């Protein structure tokens, strides 16, 4: 097994899928000659040519909409939004079109598109290069939303997304791109969409989170283990539709639940996770459900101390986990 | 004396008679739907009346065995010419399970049928333009001889997706035909309050592609324009923007009252140029549409529509529990 960074895992998944299936192609801004502004499509242009690694005009609704049309034809487009923040002009195409294509045509037409977008803060990206925008899409049946936390998951889930018969939004934490590295199997590993994953077994408290926050929670859990606090960590991986069984099982296991997201708190998907736990686990709970999230301000500012104030980090998580364990 | 204009386009007398039959079928189906609506039998109609000539003329210029289309909600003439039947349109109007467009899930006018390579459409306007461009892109990647044809109204040419889609198709020289059916009104807003340019086709200049305006009441002019655009597309010369000018003879929909925003005289004046009437006259002048052919045609269309209506009215709705199906692949 080779050690890959999160972004190398993304690139590898794309290359493997393009090699496997000629219907797979990539389109987006700067994805071709430049190899992507983050280099996620690095080398694909050279390997597969300009017809399958398409530099598009700067117009997000067309990137999504043209991809949708190609998907309806039977292609497997992988569209890149340069930043998740810039997906908003394409929302009509994603919600009105991609999400509803199968349903509105009574299963006649389908839309197997994957839309990748880097999200998340802590990279000095200010308001419009830092946001978590998954909640915008997380009540749209017909869509699937995947937010992997590790290189191995990123590769296996992206391959599954490309092969999925329905539209998948695939959000990659841009700070994870080069920060996270791990051994990733050389094999054609597919990780199923719709299944959460226990990233750490524990018996005292349960942390349920996704994306880069999984990494911070694991670091915090390692520190707390030295204090005798044993945390159970569930990585949602797919945040829409949610893996309800896994959430119920993880919450019931310890009865003390901390939910974490980098998104603004009110209206984030944590509210839905909390509702699932409330509906199913009331008598298993030993403490009120706790949440850590970004504050309810529009987005994170640029200046380093202001960005730090917004961001979820290991220390904030560790403190909340300790308090919950002591409850 | 009327000059034969169809022969030089490669159309036989039989072809133009069939073209007229399709236009008239669209008109008569549409008229029947209004009656059914006013009788309380179907909840909604959105009309093709006044646009049949351009719709059928355009569809006849495509390769109806392999080209793809993304029609908009007024395109009764387009979808009939592509192979949808009066019965299928009535099943859609009555929202019955057998409706091939959506099984009764969508409102009338939201066309789509994979067997006809007709993309499924929605209600937010102009979203179909990028989809049609995506078909063109797929055709180019797969090296398939396919033309992608998409229509919209003139008001929709203001949407971002019109610009984004046309620009994409033009930069990548994709085999796409974008036809704007300019019927002078976007619900109540007249053309001069929608755009400041003289012609919708002027917008082609910004994309570096040909833009042409033709008389939408003349099916032969539209046929010729679409044929030339299709030839361009097949020769990898890129997209064409076509504007067909006509007039919306009905209110926007069965829920609209057009007397609030336009006067009867204007509508009556437009009716004189109605393509269904003027093309019939052309065919009569050339002795192609004789009295006996015409009365046989009207009779057979009436029977076809009667049978379609009876069938659709008696057909079943989808099971209520079916709403849970086809959210995702099963």
TrEMBL record, chain A:
The keyword RNA-binding does not apply. Pfam families: Transket_pyr, Transketolase_C. Keywords: Oxidoreductase, Thiamine pyrophosphate. Residues 4-179 form the Transketolase-like pyrimidine-binding domain. Its cofactor is thiamine diphosphate. The keyword Iron does not apply. InterPro entries: THDP-binding (IPR029061), Transketo_C/PFOR_II (IPR009014), Transketolase-like_Pyr-bd (IPR005475), Transketolase_C (IPR033248). One of its GO terms (molecular function) is oxidoreductase activity. SUPFAM superfamilies: Thiamin diphosphate-binding fold (THDP-binding), TK C-terminal domain-like. This is Alpha-ketoacid dehydrogenase subunit beta. It comes from Natronobacillus azotifigens.
UniProtKB/TrEMBL annotation, chain B:
Keywords: Oxidoreductase, Thiamine pyrophosphate. It catalyses: N(6)-[(R)-lipoyl]-L-lysyl-[protein] + 3-methyl-2-oxobutanoate + H(+) = N(6)-[(R)-S(8)-2-methylpropanoyldihydrolipoyl]-L-lysyl-[protein] + CO2. One of its GO terms (biological process) is branched-chain amino acid catabolic process. The keyword Iron does not apply. Its EC number is 1.2.4.4. InterPro entries: Alpha-ketoacid_DH_E1_comp (IPR050771), DH_E1 (IPR001017), THDP-binding (IPR029061). Residues 20-320 form the Dehydrogenase E1 component domain. GO terms for molecular function: branched-chain 2-oxo acid dehydrogenase activity. Pfam families: E1_dh. SUPFAM superfamilies: Thiamin diphosphate-binding fold (THDP-binding) (SSF52518). Its cofactor is thiamine diphosphate. It comes from the Bacteria. The branched-chain alpha-keto dehydrogenase complex catalyzes the overall conversion of alpha-keto acids to acyl-CoA and CO(2). It contains multiple copies of three enzymatic components: branched-chain alpha-keto acid decarboxylase (E1), lipoamide acyltransferase (E2) and lipoamide dehydrogenase (E3). Belongs to the BCKDHA family. This is 2-oxoisovalerate dehydrogenase subunit alpha.
